[in-house]
Design a protein that fits this description.
Mean pLDDT: 83
Helix content: over 70%
Radius of gyration: 55 Å
Low-confidence stretches: 1-7
Largest sheet: none
Structural class: mainly alpha
Length: 300
């Protein structure tokens, strides 16, 4: 068995010719329809309705949160920064109090050591180095030093306790400020959500109104087209009744003849004759008279 192969150009040419032939035959069909019901009025407006899908609750909330993200972060950062600064100041004061205690303790010990040394030297000069007087005097200095150190430690502890109390109070104030800000933020967030939902509602109403108007326009257009098509059908019926089927058939074939003539004029003589004589649809649509007329014109 032989297998015929065509190159791409030949294949494309066959496809193009087939499409052109089909186009001519479709025009013949349109003429038949026209003389059956008349030219139909266009009923398709191709108006596009709006397909609007409202955001979900989660999407609305996410959008509101994103819009307030800067406000939320700045508010929390401001509160933390303010109280962190005060907390650091208190911590610095506690550290300073401890350093002062160490410094004053050293100073007290040095002072009493100097006083005791002077008292010993004085007692030696007077020959009282081993007397009970100097011993009692030195003991008295030691007791006074211990008392001063105890007072210093007590004052320092009281001051540190007071500072730590301030720190605890400050922490409570910070937590209360954060809670108050959370409430303020929650109110703003709900206001933002309500605002977005209001915009969505307006958008939905606008889309519904627009789509309803489109539906009304299309319905009116279809009603008018149906009336016009009915009127055209009546006109065609009257035309048939007045002129008879022979006249109508002659008009149809004459119109088809002109379409076929224009089409074959675009082809070379050989292909035109080949297509006209090989496709019986042309003779059926043109009728014997017009078919022979067209064949003769192409042969000449």
């Amino acid at each position: 068995m032989y297998q015929y192969l065509f190159d791409d150009n030949t294949t494309q040419k066959v496809k193009d010719n087939t499409l052109k032939t089909q186009s001519v035959l479709d025009k013949f069909s349109d003429i038949d329809k026209k003389y059956t019901t008349g030219n139909k009025a266009e009923t398709n407006l191709n108006l596009q309705k709006i397909d609007y899908v409202a955001p979900t609750k989660e999407e609305v909330k996410s959008k509101a949160e994103n819009s307030l993200l800067g406000y939320k972060n700045n508010g929390i950062e401001k509160i933390n920064s303010n109280y962190d600064l005060q907390n650091q100041q208190i911590s610095d004061a506690v550290k300073k109090a401890k350093e002062n205690e160490i410094e004053q303790k050293s100073q007290i010990e040095k002072t009493y050591a100097s006083v005791k040394e002077n008292a010993k030297n004085d007692a030696i000069k007077r020959g009282l180095a081993r007397s009970s007087i100097i011993v009692n005097k030195l003991d008295n200095y030691d007791n006074r030093m211990l008392s001063d150190l105890t007072v210093l430690a007590s004052e320092t502890n009281d001051k540190i306790f007071s500072l730590n109390t301030q720190k605890n109070t400050l922490e409570l104030e910070k937590n209360n400020a954060l809670k108050a800000f959370d409430i303020e933020y929650a109110i703003k967030l709900q206001d933002k959500i309500d605002s977005i939902n209001e915009d969505i509602s307006k958008k939905e109403q606008s889309v519904t109104k627009y789509n309803n108007e489109i539906a009304e326009i299309e319905a009116k257009w279809n009603r008018d087209a149906e009336k016009e098509n009915y009127s055209r059908e009546q006109d065609m019926a009257n035309f048939f009744a007045k002129y008879g089927s022979y006249t109508i058939e002659t008009l149809k074939r004459d119109e088809k003849y002109q379409i076929a003539k224009d089409y074959f004029a675009s082809l070379d003589k050989e292909n035109a004759l080949k297509e006209l004589t090989s496709n019986s649809a042309y003779k059926e649509n043109l009728g014997p008279v017009n078919y022979e007329k067209l064949l003769k014109e192409l042969q000449e």
